[in-house]
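Let's practice the habit of predicting before peeking. Look at the sequence and jot down your guess about where helices and strands might fall. Then scroll down.
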Amino acid sequence: MSNSLHVRPLRPSDRDAIRNLALVNGMFTVEEMPGFDEMLDGYLARSMPDHHWFVAETDGAPTGAGYYAPEPFGDRVWNLYFLAVDPNVHGQGVGTAIVEHLIEHLISLGQDVARVLLVETSSTSSYERARTFYSARGFVQEARIREFYGPSDDKIVFWLGLNV
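Done guessing? Here is the structure:
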């Protein structure tokens, strides 16, 4: 991995690259992209001030992105709604850099604002790598909701305490 990897807030010029990451990683279909665009555009329009997008940039180009926001009905609980890395650099530390950055950001907000981070993923074999990734970074599998996404496709919820 390049020494020039760093994580920064999303910029409007990143929009197309981040949309492409969602598509090439198979996280959304073309038909589902309007909902994804709503998340991106809401952030860029500053209409969702407590929502956060960060971009991993390598050699000046976006190579990954993460999006997280507070859980509206939880007590200082946050959700990591999106994490994607360019498939050409999977396994090279980009996803880890994003997750570490957002955890540091949430911890910096203090226990009065952030105490738990959740992430949801699928139980299908295509998401096995994602489940392994979160487990390796200290997330604990907290729940399984059977057939949430469809037949034989459970929702797996991972939990991470933000205690320091």
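How did you do? The beta strands are 6-9, 52-58, 61-70, 77-85, 116-122, 140-150, 153-161.
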